[in-house]
Amino acid sequence: MPIATEVTSLEENRVQLDVSVSHDEVERAVDRALRQLAREARIPGFRPGKVPPAVVMRRYGRDVVVQEMLKSSLGQWYESAVAEAGVRPIDDPELDLDTVPEEGADLVFRATVRTRPTATLGAYTGLQAAKEEVEVPDGAVDAELDRLRQRAARLQVVERPAAAGDFVVISFEGRANGRRIPSASARDYMVELGANRLLPDFDTALQGMSAGEEVGVDVTYADDDQRPELRGKTVTYTVSLQQVQEKVLPALDDDLAVEVSEFDTLDELRADIFEKLRARQQAEVDERFRRRVIDAAVAEATVEVPEVMVDRRINGILSQTANSLPRGVTFEQYLQATGRTLDQAVAELRPDAEMAIKRELVVEAVAQAEGVEITDADVEAQIRQDAESMGRDPEELAAEVRTNDAWETLREDLRLQRAVQTMVSSAEPISMEQAEAREKIWTPGEEKPDPGSKLWTPGQPT
User: For 304-321, what is the mean pLDDT?
Assistant: First the structure.
């Protein structure tokens, strides 16, 4: 094998990896580095990118080429060693390379790195956790029916002043310093009044106007507006109202059911909506119960979370937030808009980030304690299930998973899901009232009351 790794466990969740890279693998890496240098070298008498590798070796010497090789390959060999050893680092490694290998010799280096800690489990089965009753809120079915009516509504032209909820057809032209601004002008533009899709001054001015009327509106744009042609300017808009249309809702009857669904009667549609809402509520209740069971197991366990894991989790959350911002909005502008500094945002995220890691570590420990194993057949069954829900060909999706190296990731996800199911299936649901009463008596993290004390606990006679 090109890489051999010896693992030594150290204190404080650290491991030492002694890695040996075969001389053949080293020479292949040296050759790649040499060719890359040849493409970049600028040597008199040769065109850029056409310098023979042998000339580069003579000019720079083997030591320089080896140093370039180490820059590009040492990290890859470390990653391969980590994967081979099954180690899960939580920080950058300390790399120790004593000597640069001579030609034909193996390369040996040592990496010392901190790994994910292991939670010390307490009780994790037979736990009690709050679980609400599934209840479809009053008015929820009617609200869904109203949404369906809104979707099936039609528009009809009316001869009256425009009001909130109406759809209007307008044309407008914006001018600044007497010059027309194309990006601030439009014709035959339809929009709903009162739906926050227009400038507030537009919306206010149009309400009460009738078709054929015209109004002027002045809008001053901020100095930091993202549109250069509007930034810091006062634009005078001339807005003409061409048409007013009102929304006409269909009657709440069997005809509506036929139009918007596969059902023939309104009663059948109501029943279907109710069952779907109930199923959605059940899924939400089950998910909250699942989280409470995991949190109960965390409260029973001893989990030390290294600061570096929390910091990295917070950095990941902040990066995701920055990447999801609208185009043109910087992360600094986002923080300013939310009235927070970066330090405040980090402080707010820290407790949730630490708790999320604790949950993960406890679930991993449960999977280990229960000896949970996921076979290739289990992974294939999940892929078939996913393919069916996605409308994909199972074989095609399986090939895609293997190509993207996601097979083992999916296996680990299923392993952890099965560990959670072990906890949840054995847990005892209690009412929210019982949970709240218990919380008043003892909060995880505080000293538990003496079992022999006279304090009343839920389930005991008063």
Answer: 92
Q: pTM score, two decimals?
A: 0.72
State in words which class domain 3-114 has: alpha beta
For the domain spanning 287-441, the CATH number is 1.10.3120.10
Q: In the predicted model, what is the mean pLDDT of the chain?
A: 88
Q: 287-441: same fold as 154-248?
A: no
pLDDT higher than 50, residue 449: no
Domain ranges of the chain: 3-114, 154-248, 287-441
Mean pLDDT of 382-400: 91
pLDDT band at 101 (very low <50, low <70, confident <90, very high): low
The CATH class given to the 154-248 domain equals alpha beta
- The predicted-structure confidence for 197-250, as pLDDT tens digits, reads as follows 888 888 899 999 999 999 999 999 988 888 888 989 999 999 999 999 999 999
Q: Are strands 154-157 and 234-248 parallel, antiparallel or unpaired?
A: antiparallel
